[in-house]
Amino acid sequence: MSSLKKNKFKFIHAADIHLGSILHVTCNEVREIDTLFKEGVYKAFNNMCEFAIEAKVDFILLCGDVYDRESRTVRAAEVFYNQCARLKQNNINVYIIRGNHDPIGKSEELFNLPDNVYVFDSEKTENFEMYKNDKLIARIIGQSYKGKWEGRKVFEDYIVNDNSSYNIALLHTQLEPKNNNYLPCSFKELIKNENINYWALGHIHKCRIINEKSPAILYPGIPQGRDIGEREIGGCLLVEVMEDYSTNISFVPTSLVIWKKIIVDISDYDNVENLNDLQDILVEKGESILRSQVEIPENLETVYSPLQPLKGYIVQWDIQGRGKINEALREDEENIVNYIIEMLNKHFIQREKFLYTDSIEINTKKAFEDLEKFKENSSIFNEINIVLEDILQDGGLKKELVKSFGNIFEKKYDIEDINEEKIQLDEEIIEEIINEAREIVMEKLIEKGEQF
Ligand SMILES: [Mn+2]
After folding, report:
1. How far is the CA of 259 from the centre of ligand 1 (A)?
2. Which residue, 272, 289, 292, is CA-closest to 281?
3. CA-CA to 274 of 20 to 30 Å: which in 54, 174, 326, 348?
């Protein structure tokens, strides 16, 4: 917005609202913020519409998964209907493609959506023209999912023969050429279509700039994360299009709550001997989160909704490292975890912004004296360490290792359709297994009295 150029029109690009879903906290005993967990998804959508009205945008794009399920709940449908009616009063059009969570065909809208709302067909590509003061300002092109899975390359029919207008294409895709479930598609295929100025994508729940301009290709991410897998602040994108078709793209935060994983490595501190020491560390970490600025995805310029939505954090702690306190923690793990959760929540709930502890994982290990000396001097350990480092660095070696893990692990999995009988093996877990192996080897060597 620092630009002096006049903007011709502006719109909001959003996706994956998932109306009808809730925030999946594991314990649900904090009455003050309970409603927030149930209402967060609706409220984030409300924030977005509030912002759209305040910023006087010309239209909103919703790129799939407005609803969480094919069978929409009355509540979700009602919320959506009411927001659309408000947007109509403010002359804001809404363009929608359906995604894998709310494909066309199975169930229709419960309410008669107002005529400012355009839902793209799933049988053929449609092309809507957007006028402002009787002048054509943009063409909006798209096609909806027909069912839960979409294997058709619908974007191949996104044909606009006229580049005298600003052309926007809507697509719900994982952007993976080999993924036949969520619209197989590659970056190259998208940029081949020369008449599209902006690719408004949906499906990936994280804000991502795939291509900055000519054409711009972006994912806005989910407006409100619903579990620990959906970390970072959620929101939508505000796109201002100038007379010369250059764009200003900013991020509009809409989340009420940010999910956060906090790792505490007790080896980083001197003498963590008892619960008091641990409590002090956790409280200080929590305070520092509350003091710190929220990280905006992709370093985008930020415009805030007038509602100033952020209310707090939902936190999962991972306590790891070696220390004397390990034995005490392990002895009565469940009760100690419950005690710490209660202590932290008492401390952090009644704040201007809350920090709600949802769960704590204890991954500590026993302390060894002279550990550093051992690492330096044990020749067996050092040799094994070299092998492990090689595996971590070398893709080929890693692949070989993964092969030997066996069938319990699933390497290529579908995040939207998880096989409950297998363990999803991502890079993080592979590294965890290797590092765990290193720790076990070290412990065994020390216990067996390996000389150093
Ligand atoms: Mn989605």
Report:
1. 17
2. 272
3. 348
User: What parts of the chain have a pLDDT lower than 50?
Assistant: 1-3
pLDDT at res. 428: 85
| Partner residues linked to 331 by β-bridges | none
* Domain residue ranges in the chain: 7-254, 369-452
C-alpha 294 – ligand 1 centre gap (Å): 23
The single-letter DSSP state of residue 296 is P
67 CB-near residues (< 8 Å, 6+ apart) = 17, 18, 19, 20, 76, 77, 80, 101, 102
Rg of the chain taking only CA atoms, in angstroms: 25
CB count in 10 Å sphere of residue 383 = 10
Joined tokens for residue 206? 């994280």
Q: How far is the CA of 66 from the centre of ligand 1 (A)?
A: 8
Closest residue by Cα to residue 202 from 369, 354, 62: 62
Say if residues 103 and 146 touch (Cβ distance below 8 Å): yes
Confidence (pLDDT) at 28: 62
CATH number assigned to the domain covering 7-254: 3.60.21.10
DSSP code of 294? P
On whether the CB atoms of residues 239 and 60 are closer than 8 A, the answer is no
- The values of phi and psi at residue 12, to 5°, are -105, 135
Phi, psi of 444 (to 5 degrees): -65, -40
Bridge partners (DSSP) listed for residue 409: 423
Predicted confidence at residue 452, as pLDDT, reads 54
Element of type H or E holding 301: strand 301-302
Give the separation between CA 292 and CA 305, rounded to whole angstroms: 20
Side chain identity, residue 115: D
How far, in Å, from the CA of 146 to the mean position of ligand 1? 15
The first and second tokens of residue 195, run together, are 């008449």
pLDDT digits 0-9 by tens, 247-279: 999 999 999 999 999 999 999 998 899 999 999
The pair of structure tokens assigned to 62 is: 């919703």
Q: In angstroms, rounded to a whole number, what is the distance separating the alpha carbons of residues 246 and 25?
A: 42
Cα distance between residue 361 and residue 333, in whole Å: 10
CB-based contact 181:175 (threshold 8 Å): no
Q: Which residue has the tokens 């935060």?
A: 253
CA distances from 80 to 52, 147, 170, 305, 388 (A): 15, 21, 20, 19, 53
CB 378 within 8 A of CB 452: yes
Ligand 1 center to residue 31 CA distance, Å?
29
Q: How far is the CA of 204 from the centre of ligand 1 (A)?
A: 7
Total Cβ atoms within 10 A of residue 3: 11
Helix 31-54 / helix 74-89 crossing angle, nearest 10 deg: 30
